[in-house]
């Protein structure tokens, strides 16, 4: 639960994709004149035109055919959904009408089978950006218009005629869907299969370790593509190969070429002179606005070192829906903010019955966010192409059960690409044991990253160095003999010994003051926190920082 890569997608089940949630957060916060139904929209010319554009797109794609409803079949209702699309600064780009099927009445096994569609993990996207920056490649962004309308349907699905556009001469008839519609449970899966087949037909290979990454390599070119539903991130060299790929995709689908990647799932991306920076300033402002803390006082650290949070039964209960909503928003902010990993991870443990003390701690995190909205990560040109990591643990800090906290952070060159804070699953009897458990968790992540990097760059796998600040734990990893002090440690944690023996991983000692994972395992005092924040690679990316 405590790792940002395990962001709970169920929190946003009502949206088509996470992308919609982070593009449309404005609608949650600002009162917009968006129609709630067809009746309200039919009195405004701009929305009528938006509906006509949507129907035109559906008809051009040969999505359906008019027919009589066969016996024993039910027609699924359709609903108009209206959205005002905005850019990162909140300016209106366009008015969009979407025809959505009421897929919630579909029954599994009758109307649909498979629904899962893979999306790229955020740490993979960060690695992709780091590789691009290191090689001075441009990163481009493509969006498929009405993507779900391209997916071919295997099942027999019928829908009613859309409100306001019922053909008088065909009243009582229904549409049989040939391709998917938004709202159908199987729509994401159908689109993903279509895209997968298209990319394979263009000689791309799917990455076995990350299902939403595709690569294409020839002797003088390399292309990498990351897929998140209908958003495609393209990088590689030479530039003419990227342009050729865009042209090939435009032949097959209606595409929006968004040029150089600048805004992706609520993350602002800046590409300058080969360096690539990521931050979430606009999203941080939206969280503060939603929490009613846009004018709050700033604080220098997200959590005071002496903070003791427990699952107590006394104290005033707070609104758990509001608490969970704030936690969900802050967890998404972790994608560019490792400095918040510990405090947000700790507060995530109290979502069941949050009390006033927990809400007070969240408010301090938000006050810290207010003062550091423009902080983010920069991936540098020529920053190095080796992956190395740090693993640390805090022994028995801030847990009632006496379980330690694992902190892991991995770097590509000088910049962080993957980090997590997790409560350890078992109670450790010493700090050495706690560090050993943390290093094992780091080893599993290191193996995955090492293989992923090898697949993306088509190079040999190289062993990864993990830096640990406990000499006893390192001795335990390198010493194959089980002695009295370690025989009780769960067998699975001895996995790291095997990795060290096989030379997949190298473990080195690092002194505590240079232990970058320290900030992920406990609340640090002010000066130490600010020093560590700078050390892990987090910078103020506001415009003044570039001048």
UniProtKB/TrEMBL annotation:
<dbReference type="InterPro" id="IPR013103">
    <property type="entry name" value="RVT_2"/>
</dbReference>
<feature type="domain" description="Reverse transcriptase Ty1/copia-type">
    <location>
        <begin position="61"/>
        <end position="303"/>
    </location>
</feature>
<dbReference type="InterPro" id="IPR043502">
    <property type="entry name" value="DNA/RNA_pol_sf"/>
</dbReference>
<protein>
    <submittedName>
        <fullName>Ribonuclease H-like domain, reverse transcriptase, RNA-dependent DNA polymerase</fullName>
    </submittedName>
</protein>
<dbReference type="Pfam" id="PF07727">
    <property type="entry name" value="RVT_2"/>
</dbReference>
């Amino acid at each position: 639960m405590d790792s940002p890569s395990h962001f709970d997608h169920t929190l946003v089940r009502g949206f088509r994709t996470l992308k919609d949630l982070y593009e449309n957060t404005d609608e949650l916060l600002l009162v917009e004149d968006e129609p709630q139904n067809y009746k309200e929209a039919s009195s405004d010319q701009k929305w009528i035109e938006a509906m006509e554009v949507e129907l035109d797109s559906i008809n051009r794609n040969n999505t359906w055919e008019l027919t009589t409803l066969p016996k024993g079949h039910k027609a699924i209702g359709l609903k108009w959904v209206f959205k005002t699309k905005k850019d990162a600064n909140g300016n209106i780009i366009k008015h969009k009408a979407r025809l959505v099927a009421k897929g919630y009445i579909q029954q599994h096994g009758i109307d649909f089978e498979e629904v899962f569609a893979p999306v790229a993990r955020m740490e993979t996207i960060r690695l992709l950006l780091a590789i691009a920056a290191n090689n001075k490649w441009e990163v481009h962004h493509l969006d498929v218009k009405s993507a779900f309308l391209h997916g071919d349907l295997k099942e027999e699905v019928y829908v009613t005629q859309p409100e306001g556009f019922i053909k008088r001469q065909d009243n009582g008839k229904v549409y049989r869907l040939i391709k998917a519609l938004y709202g159908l449970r199987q729509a994401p899966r159908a689109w993903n299969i279509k895209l997968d087949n298209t990319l394979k037909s263009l000689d791309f290979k799917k990455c076995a370790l990350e299902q939403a990454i595709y690569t294409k390599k020839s002797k003088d070119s390399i292309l990498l593509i990351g897929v998140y539903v209908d958003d495609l991130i393209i990088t590689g060299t030479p530039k003419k190969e990227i342009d050729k790929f865009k042209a090939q995709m435009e032949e097959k689908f209606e595409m929006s070429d968004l040029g150089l990647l600048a805004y992706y799932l609520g993350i602002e991306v800046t590409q300058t002179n080969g360096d690539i920076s990521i931050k979430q300033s606009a999203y941080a402002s939206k969280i503060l606005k939603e929490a009613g803390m846009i004018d709050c006082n700033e604080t220098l650290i997200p959590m005071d070192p002496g903070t003791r949070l427990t699952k107590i039964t006394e104290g005033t209960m707070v609104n758990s829906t509001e608490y969970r909503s704030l936690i969900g928003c802050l967890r998404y902010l972790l994608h560019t903010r490792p400095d918040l990993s510990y405090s947000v991870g700790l507060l995530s443990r109290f979502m069941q019955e949050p009390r006033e003390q927990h809400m007070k701690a969240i408010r301090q995190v938000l006050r810290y966010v207010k003062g550091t909205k423009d902080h983010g990560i920069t991936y540098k040109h020529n920053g190095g192409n080796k992956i190395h990591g740090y693993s640390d643990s805090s022994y028995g800090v801030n847990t009632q059960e006496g379980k330690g906290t694992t902190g892991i952070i991995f770097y590509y060159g000088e910049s962080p690409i993957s980090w997590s804070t997790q409560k350890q699953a078992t109670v450790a009897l010493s700090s050495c044991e706690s560090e050993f458990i943390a290093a094992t968790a780091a080893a599993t992540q290191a193996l995955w990253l090492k293989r992923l990097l090898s697949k993306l760059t088509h190079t040999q796998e190289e062993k990864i160095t993990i830096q640990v600040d406990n000499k006893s734990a390192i001795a335990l990893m390198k010493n194959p003999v089980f002695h009295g002090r370690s025989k009780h440690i769960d067998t699975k944690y001895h996995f790291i010994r095997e990795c060290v023996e096989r030379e997949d991983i190298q473990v080195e000692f690092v002194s505590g003051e240079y232990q970058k994972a320290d900030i992920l395992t406990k609340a640090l005092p002010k000066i130490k926190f600010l020093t560590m924040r700078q050390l892990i690679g987090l910078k103020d990316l506001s415009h003044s920082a570039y001048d």
